[in-house]
Specification:
Number of strands of chain B: 2
CATH superfamily of chain B: MetI-like
Shape of chain A: globular
Order of helices and strands of chain A: EEEHEEHEHHHHEHEHEEHH
CATH architecture of chain B: Orthogonal Bundle
Strand order of the largest sheet of chain B: 1-2
Radius of gyration of chain B: 22 Å
Helix content of chain A: 25-40%
Number of helices of chain B: 11
Order of helices and strands of chain B: HHEEHHHHHHHHH
Structural class of chain A: alpha/beta
Helix content of chain B: over 70%
Strand content of chain B: under 5%
Number of domains of chain B: 1
Shape of chain B: globular
Number of helices of chain A: 10
Oligomer: heterodimer
Number of domains of chain A: 1
Structural class of chain B: mainly alpha
Radius of gyration of chain A: 18 Å
Largest sheet of chain A: 6 strands, mixed
Chain lengths: 253, 282
């Protein structure tokens, strides 16, 4: 890993009430690369992802210990400003959740919140973001209709565009294609490949083929621990740990 | 079961029809328009103007909503979005308890607390002399009574907004309050309107607590400190007492009919508004 890490996790422990969900995690997420977290359901990969933008803050009974450094700044420091941290990261959840407003307003939501008022600039930005996710031609004639009327695949691309509109540095994807049909999935994957030049991307996925297609690095998580973290091909084709071998066996054969 | 269902629906129609038939003697002598717009209420001389009572009802209900709604919205938002879950567990049962208190107790509370409060502390700033028995007192008592109803509906409505939707807003760097304003409230709008509608319907019909604090003067209130005489209070105070006066019985039942029609129209209109909003959102 030649790059300096963009996100550096140090001795992270997360508890859900009595349940020790993440155990002593330390990992450096490289800058401008795609890193995937793989592992069985309930192993803690989504929990780990959510610690990166402090979405656990409002959850009941979640305790986070340890450090998560983003650009060298500890986001769990009491002085850290949570909105500023979250603005750095675009989140793509399992199912798309368009905000209850028009297509245009969905994209403009973030920029407006951060103070952009100029109509012309907003127009430009909305068009640019929609073009970036290849949605512009499909929706340009109905920007003012409610976003929930789009298909699921379109909604997911809209959510990606919405996240990109606040100019984040990092994109967090929590199984972002799990609700999509193969064609929409392909589109999202292609977007990730394009976007990796400009953004650090962290993906949670349980589709090994997807992890291989889009990611540079893979971390295998099992039972709240990182078992192995290596470049994609190495981890999938030549895993070092027994547990990893067992998990990716189906993939190799 | 079908028959029972139809019967219960028909009951509403029969009540409406019955009220109409019983108010016919009055309607045969006077036009509906003059009855509704006249302010002269002299049963002994056979003059029945319902305008003061209609206005009394509207004033009291209007004040109740204006007082209750902001309080309910803010408390609802606090309980569902900001309060620690342990705090929530303590607050919610108290709110529910409030809805179980009989109206007459609220009436007594109004007489002993709200009326003197208005008379001694609020009214002197605006007028020279006031008894405190006013549409404002009625509105405040009523606001407290509809408070638990609105809150419990709001909590229900806020609870249906998916966590992920709020997360989506938060992860764009929005603050909690921005998320509440732009996502939670917007998404909950149909539910909020439904809550208001139910509360208003309840407020229209509330009788005893309002009757105890309103002053019950058959005059059109011109300020919140004036006395008022809402329709339900008129019926409750007089029905069965002065029925020897010609047409009085008919007049009271006509006022019941007015109440019936107001609530009916109100529900119908709000249903239309609600479906419009829902269609626009989807």
């Amino acid at each position: 890993m030649a790059n300096t890490p963009h996100i550096s996790v140090q001795n992270l422990n997360v508890y859900y009430g009595q349940n020790h969900a993440l155990k002593n995690i330390s990992i450096d997420i490289p800058d401008k690369k795609v890193t995937s977290f793989i592992g069985p359901s309930g192993c803690g990969k989504t929990t780990l992802l959510k610690t990166f933008n402090r979405l656990h803050d409002s959850s009941v009974d979640v305790r986070v210990e340890g450090k998560v450094l983003v650009d060298g700044e500890d986001i769990y420091d009491s002085k850290a400003e949570v909105t500023h941290i979250r603005k750095k990261m675009g989140l793509l959840s399992q199912r798309p959740f368009p905000l209850p407003m028009s297509i245009y307003d969905n994209i403009a939501y973030g920029p407006r919140i951060h103070g952009m008022r100029d109509k012309e600039k907003l127009d430009q930005l909305v068009e640019q973001q929609l073009r970036d996710v290849a949605l512009w031609d499909e929706v340009k004639d109905r920007l003012n209709t409610p976003a929930v009327r789009l298909s699921i695949g379109q909604q997911q691309r809209l959510c990606l565009a919405r996240g990109l509109a606040v100019q984040p540095e990092i994109i967090l994807g929590d199984e972002p294609t799990s609700a999509l049909d193969p064609k929409s999935t392909q589109k999202i994957e292609e977007l990730f490949v394009q976007l990796r030049e400009k953004y650090t991307i962290v993906l949670v996925t349980h589709i090994l083929r997807q992890a291989r297609r889009v990611s540079d690095f893979i971390a295998f998580i099992y039972n709240g621990e990182i078992i192995e973290f290596a470049p994609t091909e190495e981890l999938l084709l030549n895993p070092k740990e027994e547990l990893t071998k067992e998990y990716v066996r189906g993939f190799v054969s | 079961m079908l028959v029972l269902t139809i019967l219960s629906v028909l009951l509403a129609v029969f009540i409406g029809l019955g009220l109409y038939l019983r108010s016919l003697p009055l309607l045969e002598l006077k036009s509906v328009g003059s009855l509704l717009t006249s302010s002269v209420w002299k049963p002994f001389k056979g003059e029945f103007g319902f305008f003061p009572f209609i206005m009394g009802t509207l004033w009291v209900t209007g004040i109740a909503i204006v007082v209750a709604l902001p309080l309910c919205l803010l408390s609802g938002i606090f309980i569902s979005e900001y309060a620690h879950h342990r705090v929530r567990k303590i607050i919610v049962p108290f709110v529910d308890l409030l809805s179980g208190i009989p109206p007459v107790v609220f009436g007594v509370w109004g007489v002993l607390f709200v009326v003197p409060l208005i008379q001694e502390y609020i009214a002197p700033h605006f007028v020279e002399y006031a008894t405190g028995y006013s549409v404002l007192a009625g509105g405040i008592v009523l606001a407290v009574m509809i408070f638990p109803l609105i809150i419990s509906i709001l909590l229900e409505v806020f609870g249906t907004v998916p966590r992920e939707l709020k997360d989506a807003s938060l992860s764009l760097g929005a603050t909690q309050w921005q998320t509440v304003k732009f996502v939670l409230l917007k998404r909950s709008m149909p539910g909020i309107i439904a809550a208001i509608v139910l509360a208003i319907s309840r407020a229209f019909g509330e009788t005893i607590a309002v009757l105890m604090v309103c002053g019950n003067l058959p005059e059109v209130p011109h300020s919140v400190l004036d006395s008022g005489y809402p329709l339900p209070a008129l019926i409750a105070n007089n029905y069965g007492e002065m029925l020897s006066i010609p047409l009085y019985d008919s007049a009271l039942l006509f006022s019941a009919l007015i109440l019936f029609i107001i609530i009916f129209l109100f529900n119908a209109i709000s249903r239309i508004v609600l479906s419009r909003i829902e269609r626009r959102m989807n």
